[in-house]
């Protein structure tokens, strides 16, 4: 579930308060780029995109990939529908999260608590508090994308780094990578953004028996 929260967190973040707008600062550029991405996506309404997710265990150079469709209503809701190799879904709206597997009668439902798990705080805490918890830098990539790197300030944080690539123009997220403390890397690549056609995408299936931890 953290993968979905991280993405929604990045799309819902805002630039840190109290920075000098005239200063050419990689940290300020990073928060500003994320804020522009959030505003552009919110202005676009509900969107859908294709994604490929690759999980690479620590010590390996290649990993296993899954693919599917992303539904997005920034900054509050997103949904991952995996189609290959297994059909499963993750939905996050605000502080609530759901996950289920196609064909199973039960699903999992949880409340996101920013005070207990790093990564979840990205979604729920104000920008000034986020800037106190994370270092952020921005740099240009050769293909015209903007790279933004987030690093927790706490030395014992379970999340070591989160990196995203913003497509030229600043209105679409092209990629997201994050690394945990064990060295495992989860990477997302997004493509084919288009208007979302499913009006019920952000409503969890009513016929499932929802269980909470």
Task: Output the structural class.
Answer: alpha+beta
Ranges where pLDDT stays below 50 over 5 or more residues in a row are: 16-23
Measured as a percent range, the helix fraction is 10-25%
Number of domains: 1
> Which percent range describes the beta-strand content?
35-45%
What is the CATH class? Mainly Beta
Could you describe the largest sheet, including whether it forms a barrel? 12 strands, mixed
**Span between termini:** 13 Å
Element order: H for helix, E for strand: HHEEEEEEHHEEEEEE
Task: Please characterize this protein's 3D structure.
- The protein has helices at residues 2-12, 26-43, 121-124, 127-133; strands at residues 47-56, 64-73, 77-84, 88-93, 96-101, 106-111, 134-140, 146-152, 159-166, 173-180, 185-195, 209-211.
- The chain has one domain (2-134, 193-211): outer membrane lipoprotein receptor (LolB), chain A.
- By secondary structure, the protein is α+β, with helices and mostly antiparallel strands.
- The protein has a 12-stranded mixed sheet.
- Helices cover 19% and strands 42% of the residues.
């Amino acid at each position: 579930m953290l993968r979905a929260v991280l993405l929604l967190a990045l799309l819902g973040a805002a630039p840190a308060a109290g920075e000098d707008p005239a200063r050419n600062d990689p940290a300020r550029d990073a928060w500003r780029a994320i804020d522009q991405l959030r505003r552009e996506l919110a202005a676009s309404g509900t969107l859908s995109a294709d994604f490929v997710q690759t999980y690479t265990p620590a010590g390996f150079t290649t990993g296993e990939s899954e693919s599917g469709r992303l539904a997005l209503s920034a900054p509050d809701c997103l949904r991952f529908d995996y189609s290959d190799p297994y059909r499963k879904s993750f939905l996050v709206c605000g502080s609530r999260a759901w996950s289920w597997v196609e064909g199973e009668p039960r699903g999992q439902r949880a409340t996101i608590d920013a005070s207990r798990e790093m990564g979840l705080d990205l979604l729920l805490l104000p920008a000034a508090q986020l800037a106190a918890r994370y270092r952020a830098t921005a740099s240009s990539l050769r293909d015209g994308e903007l790279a933004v790197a987030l690093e927790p300030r706490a030395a014992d944080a379970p999340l070591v780094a989160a990196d995203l690539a913003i497509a030229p123009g600043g209105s679409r997220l092209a990629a997201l990578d994050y690394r945990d403390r064990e060295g495992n890397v989860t990477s997302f690549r997004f493509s084919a953004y288009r208007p979302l056609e499913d009006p019920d995408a952000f409503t969890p299936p009513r016929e499932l028996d929802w269980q909470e931890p």
